[in-house]
Each structure stands twice: as structure tokens, then as C-alpha cells.
Design a protein that fits this description.
The protein is α/β, with parallel strands linked by helices. The chain has helices at residues 8-16, 28-31, 58-72, 95-103, 116-120, and strands at 34-39, 45-49, 78-82, 106-107, 133-136, 144-148, 155-159. Strand 5 (133-136) and strand 6 (144-148) form a beta hairpin. The protein starts with 7 loop residues before the first helix and ends with a strand. The relative contact order is 0.16. The structure holds zinc ion. Zinc ion binds at residues 124, 126-127, 129, 149, 151-152, 154.
């Protein structure tokens, strides 16, 4: 009997390619929330995610999406669990992820632990103008703020450092 299933590397690749429902241009791997993917001897897959923003409504959707794509790929029983420690930070977003955010017009977060003046400076993703202003603390999603660039006049979303 051949046990259907996927190996750990494949499972990690598939789970890591799931995108964030709120920031669909970026994958879970690029977000840095895919903490661990393990395949147990019986073929069951255990995926560990770090929640992003506390109470982020996207977490449940991401967990369900990870489960669905792994089951579709032939994985055995799939369990998605979350770990709170070590705490996820926007500093965990990869360089590729930051480039994709900027390319989509979403300002990537500044350093989470940086000086306040650095964290508050959010360059415009369109024209790189540095003097942008906050229009709303919460944008279309809780993890982004809505800002505007006086130089090009464009409003944009910015991922808040955390
Ligand atoms: Zn601008």
C-alpha cells in the first residue's frame, strides 16, 4: 500500500505560496508567518503559523486556505496550528515581500523596533516622496493605514510596523 501524501519540502512550498487575503500580492512565506511544516509518519501534515496582528480576521481564512491547498495536493490529514511565540513582527516580511508590496502601491513597513521618527516616515510607494501624511490610522484592513502623498497627490495603503 502506497500512502498518499506529500513530502515536507513540497508541503512547505505549497503552504508558503498561499497568499494573504488582505494583502493578496504577498505570500505567507514572504510575510514570514509560516513557522513550520511537518509531515508525520502516517502522512498527516502539521502546519504552524504565527498570527500577524492580534485578532487579525485573515488568520482563519489563511488557515483554511492552507488546509485546502494541501488536501488538494494529496496530503493526509492537515492540521494548522498557530503559535504566539516568538511573536511575529513586520520585520519578518522578506525583501521579496517588501518589493511586491511596493510594486502594488502598498508602502512596506518601516523597522518595527526603530526610532519613532524612522517608523513614522513612510515614503510614497509611487514617487518615493518622503513627506507623506496619515489620513486614517486604519485603512481597508486593520494592518494598514491610509496615507496620502502631497507630492504626487495619491492616497496609498501602508503596512503598519509591528
Ligand atoms: Zn507620491
Amino acid at each position: 500500500v502506497v500512502t498518499p501524501g506529500v513530502d515536507a519540502a513540497t508541503a512547505r512550498r505549497i503552504a508558503g505560496a498561499v497568499t494573504d487575503p488582505e494583502l493578496p500580492m504577498i505570500t505567507l512565506a514572504e510575510l514570514g508567518i509560516l513557522r513550520d511544516v511537518r509531515v508525520e509518519p502516517g502522512g498527516a501534515v502539521v502546519v504552524t503559523l504565527a498570527p500577524t496582528y492580534l485578532g487579525c480576521p485573515a488568520l482563519q481564512a489563511m488557515s483554511q486556505a492552507v488546509q485546502a491547498v494541501l488536501e488538494e495536493a494529496g496530503a493526509g490529514r492537515v492540521t494548522v496550528r498557530t503559535v504566539l511565540k516568538p511573536r511575529w513582527s513586520t520585520d519578518d516580511i522578506s525583501a521579496e515581500g517588501r518589493e511586491k508590496l511596493a510594486a502594488a502601491g502598498v508602502a512596506p513597513p518601516g523597522p518595527a523596533a526603530g526610532p519613532v521618527s524612522v517608523s513614522l516616515e513612510v515614503p510614497c510607494p509611487r514617487c518615493a516622496g518622503r513627506q507623506t501624511e496619515e489620513l486614517a490610522r486604519f485603512g481597508p484592513t486593520p494592518c494598514t493605514a491610509l496615507r496620502r502623498c502631497p507630492r504626487c497627490g495619491e492616497p496609498f495603503q501602508a503596512v503598519k510596523p509591528l
